[in-house]
Each structure stands twice: as C-alpha cells, then as structure tokens.
Specification:
Organism: Sinosporangium album
Oligomer: single chain
Pathway: Isoprenoid biosynthesis; isopentenyl diphosphate biosynthesis via DXP pathway; isopentenyl diphosphate from 1-deoxy-D-xylulose 5-phosphate: step 2/6
EC number: 2.7.7.60
Order of helices and strands: EEEHEHEHEHEEEEHHEHHEHEHEHEHEHE
Distance between the termini: 37 Å
Number of helices: 13
Keywords: Isoprene biosynthesis, Nucleotidyltransferase, Transferase
Protein name: 2-C-methyl-D-erythritol 4-phosphate cytidylyltransferase
Shape: elongated
CATH topology of the largest domain: Rossmann fold
Strand content: 15-25%
C-alpha cells in the first residue's frame, strides 16, 4: 500500500513593516484601530483561525515588535511563532521572514498586514492551489481602464492603453513553496541591477528570476482592500460595519471541547435564538442557566420543559432591571462556582413610527434593547474576569443608515454594536472577550425573522462557534456560509 507523503507545514507571514507615512500617522498604520481593534490584529485573527495555517511569523516595523508581542499575548494567538523586526524595504523584510522560517521546506503565504478584510475562502483556495503550483498570486479584474504614461513637455502623456480584459489588480496573500521564493530572491540579490528596478511584489521577483515557474491566480475580492491612505481607514471601518465577519468554523468536537463543563448563562425570551443556544450548549455538555423575561417558575436549569418548545430551565428575569440580572448571575455562580460565558438575546420587537409609539412602548423597547445589554455586561464582568470568559450580545446590526419604521430598533442596535467594540477594548487586559452576533443581517432576529433570514438554529450554532474561539470586538454574521461544520457534522446534532 502506498504511503502518503507527509503534508508540508503552512506558514502565514504577516508583513507589517510599514510606518504609516501615507496615512499621515506617527503610529504604524497596522496598529491604527478599525472596528474595535488594531488593523494588524484583525489580520492576525484571520490567520490564527484558519485551519489551513499551522504557524504565523509577523514582520513588524523597527521599534514596535514589543507592541506586537503584547498584542499576541493578550489575544491568545497561539499560532504566532516569531515576531521579527522588518527591514528598510519590503524586499529586505520579506527576506528576513524567509530566513526566519528555517531550512525545512514549507508552504508560505505572504500577506500584507493592512489587508484586514481578507476572506477565509481566499486562504483556503491559496493553500489548495499550492498542492499543484509552487507559486500562487491573488488578483481581481480591473474595473478601471489602465493607461501607460510617459513624460511630456508640460507633464505626462498617454503612451498606451492596454486591453482591460487582461488586466488584474494584485492583492495578497502571495504564496510559494519556500525553496522557490528563496531561490528567486537569491538570484535577485546576485543581480547588480536589481535595486535599480526592484519589483513591487514577491511574484514579480519569481516572474523575473524564475520565468519558467508558472504562477497560478486565485480570484481575490473587492473587500480585500489595502489600507494605505487616510480615506482607506474610513472605508475599511464602514466595510466592517456593513459586512459582519464570518465566524471561524471549528469542528463539532472542537466546540464540545471548548464548552463541555463550562457554565453558560443565557438571557432572552425563552422561545427564540436564546432557547436554541441553551439547548445546543447543553448538548455539548455545558451547564446552562437560561433566564427568560417572561417566566419565573424554575431555578434556571433542569426544570421541566415548556410545552411550546421553550428550553429547559427558565427563570423570570427582566434585563432592564439591573438587580434582577445581578441576582440571576449570582444564582448561577453559586450553583457551579463559576461563569464562563454570558449571552444576552433579550429584545423587544417594536417596528413602527416613533411618533405613534406610546411612552410605555418607548421605555420598554429602549429598556430591553439598549439598557438590557448594559445591565447584563456590567453584572457579568466580575464573573467573567475570574474565568477570562466571554460575553456575547445578540443584536440586529444596523444598516449603514436608519430606515423608516425602525427608529427605536436602529438606534438601540447601533448602541449594542458600539458597546461591544468599547467593552472589548476595556476588558482586553483582563482576558475577557466581547462579541456581537448579527441576528438579522446574517441570521434570524429576536425582533422577528426577516424574509430570507436563516432560522434561529443557524444563529445559535454560529453563536456557539463564536464562544469557542478567541475572537473579540467583532460583529459576526449570524449564520455561516454553508451551514455545516468543517468536519461535516452539523452542530445542531450535538449530544
């Protein structure tokens, strides 16, 4: 029987050697915060969560390696093996990274740290392409006409207009078999004319010095933008708002390993997303306390089930009442001695014009949808600080602008998103993670399921996957791309 060749390790190299001159900042642009955390951390989190990546090396601007090491430790990015000081140019930084990888053959993905919106799909396709090709680039068709300019008497003149259909805009990662990219650079450094006309990317080095090596193109994404100029910071921030990140897809066993024996407290109405979260978490072996706003007939777990499909273990708690929330959490902590995760999915489904809303409706809607998450977060912090736990807020992430008939909902949900990002920053030093699941834009809403939205079970599954990761400060789409685990097992079938 043939023996399968051992799989080469796959290393993600994050190139973060820039100093931020073009964005007009004294701070390296990769350390500028977007959507609640540094640009570099968004990129690190993507590679750390990618199942195809075995280890990570970070190339950082001189004088800032300590900042990266602190970020890695705080975020628990376990795949990061080394943080290396970058060189004076991209070429020098890349060579330092290649030297840091050691003599053993491997596959290398070189990625710009300031492309934080990379889709996991691209990493997967690049690694797959490296099984056939030893050099792989990522590119997208050019939507603009590109011209070639030449100097004129009073400025530049058009020399040529290449056929647009053949033009591509290059992105990263750029991917190679280590021996191939090393040989290309060794030949480049031996060329006395290399510095006179240096390539602007690594595939250019391979193309020039190893012309017989074919370079495969993986389709990129318009979202995979590079943060280079001041306006790019605002564009990237808005893209994070409009397109929630997708949760990493741990296997069913990985979710079980992360949640088994943990104490999870869930607040909600007992019949929607919160009910599914509670049931699924129990299936993974977690100790679950499910507190509903509308019931008070049990102690929060192991009580008789509700005939209408609500989860086992309901206990009346109004999240707009801070004392009730604190008492509920204290009860759970007393029962098991710890609280590892707290989920708030309580919401009031009001849609209509503000002018027609009664004072009581306004008070209840904002009390539950806006003040409720604040009360839950404040009461949960002492418990989560002890366990370095996880707070998950379920909300319908707002559109780019408010819409008619949604004034109360839009304002309160926008507040929850900002609360998530702020608390992730405030609590990072304590190891407490804070995330928000977008239960409407990417899934089912506790405010009423919009047309075409995935079912509450899909949102619940994603919520548990988020709880099983190191993500923090993120608004995560409430349903996965394909609705299935990476190992083919549906989380809904847990237990």
């Amino acid at each position: 029987m043939a023996v399968a060749e051992p799989r080469l390790r796959t290393v993600g190299v994050i190139l973060a050697g820039g100093v931020g001159q073009r964005v007009g900042s004294s701070t390296p642009k990769q350390l500028i915060e977007i959507a609640g955390r540094p640009i570099l951390e968004h990129t690190l989190a993507l590679f750390d969560a990618a199942p195809e990546i075995d280890e990570i090396v970070v190339l950082m601007a001189p004088g800032f390696t300590g900042d990266v090491e602190a970020l890695v430790e705080r975020g628990g990015y376990r795949k990061v093996r080394r943080v290396v000081e970058g060189g004076a140019s991209r070429t020098e930084s890349t060579w330092r990274a290649l030297q840091a990888l050691g003599p053993q053959e491997c596959d290398v993905l070189l990625h710009d740290a300031v492309r934080p919106l990379l889709e996991p799909r691209i990493i997967t396709e690049c690694v797959e392409a490296l099984k056939t090709y030893s050099a792989v680039d990522v590119a997208i068709p050019s939507s603009d006409t590109i011209l070639v300019a030449e100097p004129g008497p009073r400025g530049e003149l058009i020399k040529d207009v290449p056929e647009r259909s053949r033009l591509r805009r290059v992105q990263t990662p750029q991917c190679f078999r280590l021996s191939v990219i090393r040989e290309a650079y060794e030949r480049a450094f031996a060329d006395p004319d290399f510095d006179k006309r240096p390539p602007t990317d690594d595939c250019g080095v391979v193309l020039r010095y190893l012309p017989d090596v074919p370079i495969y193109i993986v389709p990129g994404s318009e979202h995979n933008m590079k943060v280079t100029h001041p306006v790019d910071i605002h564009i990237a921030e808005k893209l994070f708002e409009l397109f929630p990140v997708r949760a990493p897809r741990p296997s069913s066993q990985a979710v079980r390993d992360a949640l088994a024996g943990r104490t999870i407290v869930v607040f909600g109405d007992g019949r929607g997303v919160d009910a599914r979260i509670a049931d699924l978490a129990r299936g993974y072996g977690a100790e679950v306390f499910a507190f509903s706003r509308g019931r008070d007939d049990s102690h929060g777990r192991d009580s008789p089930g509700d005939p209408h499909g609500a989860p086992h273990g309901l206990y009346g708690v109004r999240v707009e009442d801070p004392r009730a929330v604190a008492d509920a959490l204290a009860h759970a902590a007393k029962e098991t001695g710890r609280i590892d995760c707290v989920v708030n999915a309580a919401a009031v489904p009001y849609r209509g014009s503000l002018a027609e809303a009664s004072d009581a409706t306004v008070a209840e809607t904002l009390g539950v949808n806006m003040l409720g998450p604040v009360n839950v977060a404040k009461a949960a912090f002492p418990h989560l600080k002890e366990t370095r736990g996880h707070l998950l807020l379920c909300a319908a992430a707002p559109h780019a602008r408010g819409r008619a008939e949604q004034s109360l909902q839009a304002s309160s949900m926008a507040a929850v998103v900002r609360l998530t990002q702020a608390l992730a920053d405030e609590w990072a030093e304590y190891g407490v993670r804070v995330n928000c699941v977008d239960v409407e834009g990417g899934g089912a809403s506790p405010l009423g399921r919009p047309s075409g939205a995935p079912a509450p079970g899909d949102v619940a599954r994603t919520s548990l996957e988020v709880l099983a990761t190191r993500l923090t400060g993120q608004v995560v789409a409430g349903a996965s791309v394909d609705g299935a685990d990476v190992d083919g097992a549906d989380v809904d079938g847990a237990g």
